[in-house]
């Protein structure tokens, strides 16, 4: 039985998941050594939820996430050294060390940030999708958030607007079953998050978040739906984090048996098994990838470790935009590589041609409500 | 003595007279015409023509994609617009009043104000949050408060509070063109006042205070609606031979230190008049600037006239007693001049 996926695609997915896994393990180690401080939320176990969508999207699609935000940018092509440097508070990090682990931003790869307020990024994503509609662009926005964030008002307020205005946004709830130490079933009247979409007459689906191919298909399909102007989609990726909520959390609220059982569903060996079953790769191919990734991560740690702290005058930069000031292009600044920076149409070039609430539609609604106009 | 804020101090009009709300409307229309990235969103801004009629007629002119009736979800539509600004649109978010914007404060201070910093300079957030602020009108505690000090606290925001129709127009235009998040407090009780407003391209730079009345004996520093009480007090005091300079701050972040110090160095006495509460008010920072940089120029301690440190009541007499007014300002001026009755 042949697989319907190309070997290149699957190997790329494998490489990215493996990169996130190794990167996070090294981040955890650096935290223990005291080189990373603050909060550091690892992604180990959830790799498929970042990598499937990254492969399914176009490079110019927008993406944002919460504070568990190292995996998605790595999956989209961000520089591992610069992410690691950000975690270590170095001037060579994506945000010059001003953001840290919870605030990775890589605009060149259209990753619009990690956010530290639970649910705070959910309306931002709708706004980015709104901008795409406003400008007649067919790009979609993908927004990650956790299961606990689905209980925030921001989630409900935003889904209502996104659905009413048919915004091209895909919400991916990473349901790892816990918000810090509290099981989602203890705090949620409806722990199946995807069901909440129905309250806003929008499409909502559960997805196996431990399977990268399922994630890939779900997001490919959802993106097509969004690009066709049919409205937003809520995907609930059922996944599991193998580690604590953050490095500061020993995760004693879960039983050993539960974690052991979940580890059997590890998405990385799962993809490898799939490829082997379909005769798509020898052991040596995986070994080569793993060696390459290990070397890349070693180099990232070394780069970060040897990078200087930001200079003190950085304190006074990047708060208010001064007139004529340019935006910072991190990869250009740090690695000297030319970057592909997003360009937005100026006010003169832009023609706004769509209606949020077409006149006829509004008047029909009035009529139906018995209002005379 | 009358404490009516709709006091007309203007001399013979040489320019068209507009109401404060009309001046804002003109600014919005002109900026939306100039730049298609600008859109207006808020509760009742479209078909209802605005809760305070600031957006009168704009829906017909610009259509429903640019004049957007939002659900009553302040956090939601504010955050949505911050997201749109992150990718280059220039939203104007109308708060029905700033009292309700408290629900959206997370998006304004945790996202808009910090995006550029957290992204290390990769992002900018060109957005205006505007709406009526200020107390009065027998609306009791939840609908009647001056909240600008809250926002003036945050780096990453600009905070403006124009008093006159001309400033309202010019500063809104400047705010829309600014690449930073701007928080604009309009006077809920000022929308109907009239004043001369220059037509067309009239842009008032943010961060610049304005000497609205020249004087030599004492400086009164104020902004927004309190400006009118200060002018009224100044007129009264002039009759007694006291020459008052009135400095309208207009922008509360960044504060125009230069203008504050120049005026105080000239008059050697200062009274700060603020509608909001005394503790941690904007006026406290103005005092700090004066005492740390112009202490030797002072002939008397700086006085503050503020709203009382209580919640707003409904009862007319309690409401009046809570707010600053011309008699309280006059008393404070006399105190810094060591005059009788103070
Ligand atoms: C508004 C807000 N409240 C509380 C917190 C503290 N906090 C940080 S993460 C977290 C749990 C969120 O869990 P979830 O949304 O499921 O995401 P996960 O960590 O599982 O990825 C909490 C309570 C916060 N950062 N923001």
Automatic annotation (TrEMBL), chain A:
GO terms for molecular function: pyruvate dehydrogenase (acetyl-transferring) activity. Coiled coil: none annotated. GO terms for biological process: pyruvate decarboxylation to acetyl-CoA. Its EC number is 1.2.4.1. Residues 15-311 form the Dehydrogenase E1 component domain. Keywords: Oxidoreductase, Pyruvate, Thiamine pyrophosphate. Its cofactor is thiamine diphosphate. Transmembrane segments: none annotated. It comes from the Bacteria. It catalyses: N(6)-[(R)-lipoyl]-L-lysyl-[protein] + pyruvate + H(+) = N(6)-[(R)-S(8)-acetyldihydrolipoyl]-L-lysyl-[protein] + CO2. The pyruvate dehydrogenase complex catalyzes the overall conversion of pyruvate to acetyl-CoA and CO(2). Heterodimer of an alpha and a beta chain. This is Pyruvate dehydrogenase E1 component subunit alpha. It comes from Corallococcus macrosporus DSM 14697.
């Amino acid at each position: 039985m042949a697989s319907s996926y190309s070997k290149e695609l699957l190997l790329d997915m494998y490489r990215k998941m493996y990169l996130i896994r190794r990167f996070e393990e090294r981040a955890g180690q650096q935290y223990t050594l005291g080189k990373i401080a603050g909060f550091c939320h690892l992604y180990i176990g959830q790799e498929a939820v970042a990598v499937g969508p990254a492969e399914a999207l176009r490079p110019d699609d927008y993406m944002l996430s919460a504070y568990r935000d190292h995996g998605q940018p790595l999956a989209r092509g961000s520089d591992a050294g610069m992410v690691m440097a950000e975690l270590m508070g170095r001037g060579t990090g994506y945000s010059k060390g001003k953001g840290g682990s919870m605030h990775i931003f890589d605009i060149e790869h259209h990753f619009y940030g990690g956010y530290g307020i639970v649910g705070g990024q959910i309306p931002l994503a709708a706004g980015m999708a709104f901008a795409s509609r406003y400008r007649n662009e067919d790009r979609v926005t993908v927004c990650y958030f956790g299961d606990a964030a689905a209980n925030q008002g921001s989630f409900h307020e935003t889904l209502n607007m996104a659905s009413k205005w048919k915004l091209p946004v895909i919400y991916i709830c990473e349901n790892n079953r816990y918000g810090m130490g509290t099981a989602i079933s203890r705090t949620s009247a409806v722990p199946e998050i995807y069901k909440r979409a129905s309250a806003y007459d929008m499409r909502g689906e559960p997805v196996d978040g431990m399977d990268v191919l399922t994630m890939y298909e779900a997001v490919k399909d959802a993106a097509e739906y969004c690009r066709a102007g049919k409205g937003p989609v809520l995907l609930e990726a059922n996944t599991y984090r193998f580690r604590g909520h953050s490095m500061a959390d020993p995760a004693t609220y879960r039983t050993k048996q539960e974690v052991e059982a979940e580890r059997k569903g590890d998405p990385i060996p799962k993809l490898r098994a799939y490829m082997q079953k379909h005769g798509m790769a020898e052991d040596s191919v995986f070994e080569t990838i793993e060696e390459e990734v290990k070397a890349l991560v070693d180099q990232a740690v070394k780069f970060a470790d040897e990078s200087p702290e930001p200079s003190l005058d950085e304190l006074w930069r990047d708060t208010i935009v001064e007139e004529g000031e340019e935006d910072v292009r991190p990869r250009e600044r740090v690695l000297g590589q030319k970057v592909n920076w997003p360009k937005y149409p100026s006010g003169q070039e832009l023609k706004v041609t769509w209606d949020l609430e077409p006149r006829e539609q509004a008047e029909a609604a009035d009529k139906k409500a018995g209002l005379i106009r | 003595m009358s404490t009516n804020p709709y006091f007309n101090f203007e001399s013979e009009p040489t320019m068209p007279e507009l109401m404060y709300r009309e001046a804002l409307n003109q600014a919005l229309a002109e900026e939306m015409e100039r730049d298609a990235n600008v859109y207006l969103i808020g509760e009742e801004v479209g078909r209802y023509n605005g809760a305070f009629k600031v957006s009168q007629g704009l829906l017909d002119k610009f259509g429903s994609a640019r004049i957007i009736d939002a659900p009553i979800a302040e956090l939601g539509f504010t955050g949505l617009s911050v997201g749109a600004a992150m990718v280059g649109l220039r939203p104007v978010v109308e708060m029905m009043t700033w009292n309700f914007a408290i629900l959206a404060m997370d998006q304004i201070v945790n996202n808009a104000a910090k995006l550029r910093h957290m992204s290390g300079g990769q992002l900018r957030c060109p957005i205006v949050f505007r709406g009526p602020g200020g107390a009065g009108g027998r609306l009791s505690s939840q609908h009647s408060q001056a909240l600008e000090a809250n926002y003036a606290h945050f780096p990453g925001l600009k905070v403006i509070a124009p008093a006159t129709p001309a400033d309202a127009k010019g500063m809104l235009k400047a705010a829309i063109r600014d690449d930073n998040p701007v928080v604009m407090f309009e006077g809920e009780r000022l929308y109907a006042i009239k004043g001369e407003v220059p037509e067309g391209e009239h842009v008032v730079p943010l961060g610049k205070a304005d000497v609205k009345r020249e004087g030599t004996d004492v400086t009164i520093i104020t902004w927004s609606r309190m400006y009118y009480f200060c002018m009224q007090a100044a007129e009264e005091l002039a009759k007694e031979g006291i020459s008052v300079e009135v400095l309208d701050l207009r922008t509360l972040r960044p504060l125009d230190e230069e203008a504050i110090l120049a005026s105080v160095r000239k008059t050697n006495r200062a009274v700060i008049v603020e509608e909001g509460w005394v503790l941690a008010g904007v006026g406290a920072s103005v005092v700090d600037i004066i005492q740390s940089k112009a202490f030797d120029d002072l002939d008397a301690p700086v006085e503050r006239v503020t709203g009382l440190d209580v919640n707003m009541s409904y009862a007319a007499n309690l409401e009046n007693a809570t707010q600053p007014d011309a008699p309280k300002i006059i008393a404070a001026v006399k105190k810094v001049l060591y005059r009788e009755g103070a």
